[in-house]
Amino acid sequence: MINFNNFVDKAFEAYDLQSNFLFQPALTLFLELHNFEPENKKFILSIANCYYNLKDYTNSQIYTDKVLSTEPENADALMFKAYIADETGHPEEFRELMHKIIDLKKANYEIYVQLAQHYFDRGEYYGALGLFTTAIKKEDAPSFSISLNIANCYGNLGAHGIAEEIYKILETFYKDNESLMYNEAVNYFDMGNENQGNKLCIKIIRNSKSKEMKSRANKLFEDNNNLIS
Amino acid sequence: MTNFEDKTPEQILNEINDLINNKKHDEAEKLLNQYLTIYPEDVSTKMLQGKIAFYKYDFEKALLKFRLASVGEWDNPIPIIWLARINYLIFKFKEALGGIEMVLINENLELGSEIECRSLKAQILFAMGKYVDAEKELKWLLTINPNHPIAIIVQTRIKRIKGNFRDSLLEPFIKLKSQLDDSALSMFYYLICKDYLRVGVIDSGKYALEQSVKLDNEFAMIYYKCYLDKNKEIFEYDDGLVLKELRKG
């Protein structure tokens, strides 16, 4: 039971459990904290987060809406609502909410990246490119993964030369990165440069310690050399 | 409301064009709408509408207007070149190349238009990764004008992709600087920054990179971010110019 004496300790314990992905016990504690301090938005959003991670989207939505009913521009609540929409098969709502966060100028690079990825996964590379390009300008944005995505967007839009130019920049800094080599190989095959594509595939197959990466490179190699495994 | 009484339609259209060239797109649009309440729509007004839409990044509207402007104007290369330029920017490379080929087929094409077409064609072929074909266009352009800025930039980008870093850019490029628009200038700074850094002239390299990032060159942005991640001791800015620009983004 939470009381004035143990309130702070319990709150720390709840956040600790949450950050260690122990969502069920964290939820129990956050619900108790919420009863003790019903107006605290952080607890309400933590409850929404726990429910979300436990895949109880109905309850997650209820707690998210509680915050939005008094703070319709709360970026964290809008973000949860967007995630729930995405998980429950409402991609249009997901986009609308993410764009709303951007329009409110409350988006960090992660919002841009998630929305960009959403477009990318649906083959909307032009929209994805714009968002990834904005994301990389944001402070603390990870340079490698976003740049790789920018290059991949260009490649998928048929701009293989521009994609190659970006892969080359990344090569300067992340020479033996397998993910980079793999994507670069895909681009080479797409632009008809089998020789370079094959070289990179072979390099991955020979040197990679990851079974999955070896297998992906192997498949790419086979697909582009008319080999049937 | 502008008083049109003492101006010919041609003067008004020139005024609108000047406003567009001075990046006063809202004013240009307002004046054009006012003009169209008195005078009928024609090829010139459709082109102006297309240009305004283009500079306002409304590419769909721009395409529509230039398409309308090109109807029945098959000997006029300008709307078709604009269509190609927009199609290139929205990654419709085949359509862009198709338009350019259509213009180039005209035997009476003026040299200026041919240079514009081939320059655009080289850029599109480069973007597609068709370097050999792009180089053919570049060769033609550089024969006509050895200092053609876009041709030199594209040629340099191809050389760099192919790993040819022997030819320093600094001297020929610095001569061209005044001829470049913002987009080309951003690429110019990006390319010379890499040259400076490669030869160890760090201050000039940093300056060029800053300029390129300021002009929103995405290659420079990627290069800068990676450089920052990997070489923090070289790019120690605290509250430097580049970081300020990045924060604005």
Count of DSSP-assigned helices of chain A: 13
**N-to-C SSE series of chain A?**
HHHHHHHHHHHHH
The main sheet of chain B comes to: none
Question: What is the residue-averaged pLDDT of chain A?
Answer: 93
Structural class of chain B: mainly alpha
Q: Mean pLDDT of chain B, as a whole number? A: 86
Give a short account of the largest sheet of chain A.
none
CATH superfamily of the domain at 1-105 in chain B: Tetratricopeptide repeat domain
Low-confidence stretches of chain B: 233-249
Q: Tally the helices of chain B.
A: 14
CATH class value of the domain at 1-105 in chain B? Mainly Alpha
CATH topology of the domain at 1-105 in chain B: Serine Threonine Protein Phosphatase 5, Tetratricopeptide repeat
Tell me the quaternary state: heterodimer
Unreliable segments of chain A (pLDDT under 50, ≥5 consecutive)?
Answer: none
Report the strand count of chain A: 0
The Cα radius of gyration of chain A reads: 22 Å
Helix percent band of chain B: over 70%
Which keywords apply here?
heterodimer; A: 229 residues; 76% helix; 0% strand; elongated; B: 249 residues; mainly alpha; Serine Threonine Protein Phosphatase 5, Tetratricopeptide repeat; globular
